[in-house]
């Protein structure tokens, strides 16, 4: 049973009859629909003149984020290597998207699922995991990302549960090498492609897809983004590690930032391995408010509904495009859907507008009744 159904990507649509080509098929189960996400061109309302930017829309995955790939990667690898058996319990520490994806895989395959999650992350994510049958354990805000990781490890050791270890598990990057990277290579076959733009959460996408792209098209430049508030990679200082590769605690350069899903309070082992092997060619620090504004702009000018990290990635792509030679083509990773951020600053202005609208209604239609 494989999550990745191995569809052959089609060239860019030429007309109405090509719409959604490759997606309408019959599948054995939901996990087979993971991957083969589309790349969509960004209009000149956002893209600098004379350059072309495509957004790879990971919200086309069944649970609406890039992390569906990671869950497939880790669960299938554990099944193959005998680490997971029917009826087992899976545990993982996650800021949300991984938990939702792992919960989906567990629900579909009959495993029990326990997720540890640090307090500041959005309520929608927590609810979704519970809806998918997972048990969610909230860890204190003060312990940050490394606190929730320590809790998951403690539970796994105590109960003999399978721990995903998304930040260290090599299956994560390998899956991105096999799917995300190959998809881009297929989709851009015979086309110009100069830059691949993304940030890192675990670094699975950066390390895996980056490696696949560099192997086949060595001229492609990898452009890595990082929150300006949390310049971990930018500091040049590595995270200290336990013998199993996990970080011992918070990186000194970490500060809380609004780009959920990017840059935990440590440099993940997979990210470090990617930097050491494939590396990156360009680096863009991204202010949190710029990421939020770009995500709002993507919705209003393109109809592309992505989360804060999607805005961050597009912001980095636009900054890169401004400096890139005329004619350059860029692909930016948009990791998830904006729907996961309804209670976050991404929707702050909308929430304020709605309060005003309600006041307007109550003023103009005093007898209004439902
Ligand atoms: N954006 C969001 C919203 C995410 O949840 C993640 C994964 N944590 C990423 C980006 C980065 O993906 P990766 O783990 O492959 O680096």
**What is the strand content?**
5-15%
**Separate helix tally:** 11
Shape descriptor: globular
Q: Using only CA atoms, what is the Rg?
A: 21 Å
Largest sheet, spatial ordering of strands: 1-2-10-7-8-9
* Biggest β-sheet strands, sense, barrel: 6 strands, mixed
Q: Ligands bound here?
A: 4'-deoxy-4'-aminopyridoxal-5'-phosphate
What is the arithmetic mean of pLDDT? 90
Q: Tell me the distance between the termini.
A: 50 Å
Please state the structural category.
alpha/beta
From the structure provided, what is the oligomeric state, counting identical versus distinct chains?
Answer: single chain
SSE blueprint and pairings:
Layout: E1 39-41, E2 52-57, H1 67-80, E3 89-93, H2 97-109, E4 112-118, H3 123-131, E5 135-139, H4 144-159, E6 162-163, H5 170-187, E7 195-198, H6 204-216, E8 221-227, H7 232-235, H8 269-277, E9 282-286, H9 288-302, H10 308-323, E10 329-334, H11 348-364
Parallel strand pairs: 2-10, 3-4, 3-6, 4-5, 7-8, 7-10, 8-9
Antiparallel strand pairs: 1-2
The structure holds 4'-deoxy-4'-aminopyridoxal-5'-phosphate.
Domain Tryptophan synthase beta chain-like PALP: 30-334
Region (Disordered): 1-23, 232-255
Protein name: Cysteine synthase (CSase) (O-acetylserine (Thiol)-lyase) (OAS-TL) (O-acetylserine sulfhydrylase)
Q: What does this protein structure show overall?
A:
By secondary structure, the chain is an alpha/beta fold. The chain has 11 helices and 10 strands. The chain has a 6-stranded mixed beta sheet. A 4-stranded parallel beta sheet has the order 5-4-3-6, with helices on both faces. Strand 4, helix 3 (123-131) and strand 5 form a beta-alpha-beta unit. Residues 7-13 have low confidence and may be disordered. Bound molecules: 4'-deoxy-4'-aminopyridoxal-5'-phosphate. Residues 65-67, 97, 200-206, 260-262, 307, 309, 335-336 line the site of 4'-deoxy-4'-aminopyridoxal-5'-phosphate.
């Amino acid at each position: 049973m494989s999550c990745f159904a191995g569809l052959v990507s089609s060239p860019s649509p030429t007309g109405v009859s090509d719409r959604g080509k490759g997606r309408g098929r019959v599948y054995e189960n939901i996990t087979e629909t993971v991957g083969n996400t589309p790349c969509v061109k960004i209009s000149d309302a956002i893209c600098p003149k004379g350059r072309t930017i495509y957004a790879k829309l990971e919200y086309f995955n069944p649970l609406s984020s890039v992390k569906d790939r990671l869950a497939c990667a880790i669960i299938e690898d554990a099944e193959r290597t005998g680490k997971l058996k029917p009826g087992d319990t899976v545990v993982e520490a996650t800021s949300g998207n991984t938990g939702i994806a792992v919960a989906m895989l567990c629900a579909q395959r009959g495993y029990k699922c326990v997720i540890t999650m640090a307090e500041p992350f959005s309520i929608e994510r927590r609810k979704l995991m519970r809806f998918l049958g997972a048990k969610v354990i909230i860890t204190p805000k003060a312990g940050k990302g490394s606190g929730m990781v320590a809790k998951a490890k403690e539970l796994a050791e105590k109960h003999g549960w399978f721990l995903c270890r998304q930040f260290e598990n090599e299956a994560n990057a390998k899956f991105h090498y096999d799917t995300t990277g190959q998809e881009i290579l297929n989709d851009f076959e015979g086309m110009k492609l100069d830059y691949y733009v993304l940030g890192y959460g675990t670094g699975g996408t950066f390390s895996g897809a980056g490696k696949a792209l560099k192997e086949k098209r060595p001229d492609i430049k990898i452009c890595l983004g990082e929150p300006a508030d949390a310049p971990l990679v930018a500091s040049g200082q590595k995270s200290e590690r336990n013998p199993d590769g996990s970080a011992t605690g918070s990186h000194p350069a970490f500060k809380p930032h609004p780009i959920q899903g990017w840059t935990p309070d440590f440099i993940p082992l997979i990210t470090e391995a990617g930097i050491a092997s494939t590396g990156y060619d360009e680096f863009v620090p991204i202010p949190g408010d710029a990421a939020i504004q770009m995500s709002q702009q993507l919705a209003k000018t393109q109809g592309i509904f992505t989360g804060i990290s999607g805005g961050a990635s597009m912001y980095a792509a636009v900054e890169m495009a401004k400096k890139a030679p005329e004619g350059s083509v860029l692909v930016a990773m948009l990791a998830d859907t904006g729907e996961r951020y309804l209670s976050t600053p991404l929707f702050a202005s909308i929430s304020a507008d709605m309060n005003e609208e309600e006041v307007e209604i109550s003023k103009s239609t005093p007898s209004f009744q439902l």
